[in-house]
Design goal:
Keywords: Membrane, Transmembrane, Transmembrane helix. This is DMT family transporter. With about 325 residues, the chain is an all-alpha fold. The chain has helices at about 5-35, 45-65, 75-95, 100-110, 110-125, 130-150, 160-180, 185-200, 205-215, 220-245, 250-255, 260-270, 275-290, 295-305.
């Protein structure tokens, strides 16, 4: 009896893991660009400019690939994720991180993956194995350690804490709402139309964007465009691709690798040399992700006999609908 996973299954796993890696790396790189663009653009204007750049990029790709409109059954999830994750989340996060120190932001915003796990278990029926929970606990501790070690000693306002909490809640709710939509629409469709919904939500900031773009240095505007093309258009699409092939809880846990990458990128591009506590926190983040994505021996053995044992229990789309 052949107990090894089939080649198509193994290839699909590698593609999903690669897509998740691209997402985490690009989302971590957004830290550097937001630091630069945020000096010239207000939170709402930055969010709108980023979403417009992302929507334009995704729209061109959709036209080239001849992607049609998402099916009616996917629109509810797309609209909710676009409103909450692409819209409210980006504005709240940009604004909140201007009002709180890094430690408080890390503590509040990084509750997002934990909320994803709880909402996913409640609303989507996602399993919550002990290794996933243990890994998330280790990663959360690491994220908070990184934030505290990189804090400049600034103060935290009540409004800033509320905005960071709003960002965490809307991020979690947006991910959980997006998951069912990926059952009938392609990752590119879900990302493109979600980004469009977010841009529409942020249109009230259009006046600020026009005014600030006229005065902003070219470097800040280029960073805003970068945020739209790569951490938004590309990274949200690779996220949706990976999410369509695993559970929301497991994908949420994967994002805990971002703080460790932020430390490395801040060192390379901003000259911010990490201290020992920062390095320890980054190591904890990566260790927690490794634990959360590992499987017990019994599950591994069962999966070897059944290649689909660890797959998302919801039915997958056909090859045509997954284009």
């Amino acid at each position: 009896m052949n107990t090894s996973p089939s080649r198509p299954t193994r290839r699909a796993e590698l593609l999903a893991a690669g897509a998740a890696t691209v997402t985490v790396v690009l989302w971590a790189s957004a830290f550097v660009s937001i630091r630069s663009a945020g000096e010239a653009y207000s939170p709402g204007a930055l969010a709108l400019g980023r979403l417009l750049a992302g929507a334009l990029t995704l729209g061109v790709i959709c036209l080239l690939r001849r992607e049609g409109w998402p099916p009616r059954s996917a629109w509810r999830g797309i609209a909710i994720s676009g409103l909450l994750w692409f819209g409210v989340y980006m504005v709240a996060l940009n604004w909140g991180e201007q009002l709180v120190d890094a430690g408080t932001a890390a503590l509040v915003v990084n509750t997002g993956p934990i909320l994803i796990a709880l909402l996913g278990a409640r609303l989507l029926g996602d399993p919550m194995p002990p290794r996933l929970l243990a890994g998330m606990a280790v990663s959360f501790a690491g994220a908070v350690t990184v934030g505290l070690s990189m804090s400049g000693g600034g103060g935290s306002s009540v409004l800033g804490v509320v905005l960071c909490l709003l960002a965490a809640v809307t991020y979690a709710a947006g991910v959980v709402a997006q998951k069912p939509a990926l059952g009938t629409a392609s990752p590119l469709q879900v990302t493109t139309f979600g980004c469009l919904v977010g841009a529409v939500v942020c249109l009230p900031f259009a006046g600020q964007l026009v005014q600030e773009a006229a005065e902003a240095p070219a470097s800040a505007t280029l960073n805003m465009v970068y945020l739209g093309v790569f951490p938004t258009a590309l990274a949200f699409t690779t996220w949706a691709y990976a999410l369509s092939r695993t559970t929301a809880s497991r994908m949420g846990a994967t994002t805990y690798a971002a703080p460790a990458l932020v430390v490395l990128m801040s060192w390379l591009f901003l000259g911010e040399v990490p201290g020992l506590l920062t390095l320890v926190g980054g190591a904890l983040c990566l260790a927690g992700v490794a634990v959360s994505r590992s499987r017990s021996r019994s599950r591994a053995a069962a999966r070897a006999g059944d290649p689909g044992a660890d797959a998302d229990p919801r039915p997958e789309r056909t090859a045509d609908s997954a284009r």
